Amino acid sequence: MRSIWNGAISFGLVSIPIKLVNATQNRSISFRQIHTEDGGRIRYRKVCELEDREVDQSEIGKGYEDADGTIVPITDEDLSHLPLPTAKTIEIVAFVPAERIDPLQMDAAYYLAAGGAQAAKPYTLLREALKRSQKVAIAKYALRGRERLGMLRVVDDAIAMHGLLWPDEVRAPEGVAPDTHVTVNDKELDLADALMDTLGEIELDELHDEYREALEEVVAAKASGEAPPESPEPAQSGKVLDLMAALEKSVRAAKESRGEEPAEPDETAGPAEAEVRTLPQRKSARAAPKQTAGRKSTSGGKTAAKKTASSTKKSTSKSAQGAKKSAVKSTAKSSTSSKTTAKKTAAKKTASRKRSA
């Protein structure tokens, strides 16, 4: 691998000559801009605005544009006089646990190669010290005209360096989270946990860029004069508004993709509960301490039995109460009817006596 920077690691009073090489490569397919009528290449030319002519690379320098639009020329000699101690040195300033580094700060990655036989001993010393301490080194270095922050760690038998953004270059996540209050219940969390368990883990080496592979097939077909392959129609999925239904569907789809048959749902439970019961129980803060799956199953059966008995008692009680109310109403009606009849009879007798008089 070709080195892009030569310098040394400053480890206290120890200096380790190293070469910096890229640890990653861009595998994406790039396109050229062409004139669609004749296929001619479209190129960009560097033109001086004042003279309106194309200029050569040797005539191009650097300049800083001021707020009022004034250009301040900056030469390489001006930059060479900057008080930058890290111009040719990766200066280690601290050793910290790896979890202290926020992944948001991660930038480009490089390998640090030992610069010659004399660097083998100090290089190995630093590598083994990093291994034993289980820490990473924080360093400053200069690259492409600016000072940068880096993190050194061990990868196999080599030392790698990740460029880090300065802390003030990472934005705070203000206004990113939902601004509405949302409550997530335990059933939804259980289904989310179940989906995570079903998807499981994966070896990252198994992942590949399917889009790039499809693009290569299209380019190859066009180059050989053949028709490009047709893309498969995407599976049509309706817009799911119910979060629980979406989680259940995701769990089933994940199981089927792994060749597993989804378990038959429990008729006594809702679809969400049935889906959760078919997956391994996860230990979490919501689970009762020292509770096994067997105990959970037993308690579930007892709870169901208690609920059934309670339901039966309530039903019986309601029926008895209804019968009592009906009897009371019937007696009340009967009593009222008797009183009314008696009053009417007495009134008739009184009227008859008055006529006779």
Notes on the structure:
The protein has helices at 76-80, 120-133, 186-199, 210-223, 243-257, 271-277, 293-356, and strands at 3-11, 14-22, 47-48, 53-54, 62-65, 71-74, 89-97, 106-114, 135-143, 146-155, 158-164. It has 357 residues and is an alpha+beta fold. Among the domains are: 3-25 and 67-169, Beta Barrel (Ku70, Chain: A, Domain 2); 183-201 and 240-282, no CATH class. β3 (47-48) and β4 form a beta hairpin. The N and C termini lie far apart (140 Å). 9% of the residues are buried.
Low-pLDDT regions = 279-320, 322-357
What is the CATH topology descriptor of the domain at 3-25 and 67-169? Ku70, Chain: A, Domain 2
Instruction: Output the radius of gyration.
Output: 41 Å
Mean pLDDT: 76
CATH architecture of the domain at 3-25 and 67-169: Beta Barrel
Strand order in the sheet with the most strands? 1-2-8-11-10-9-7
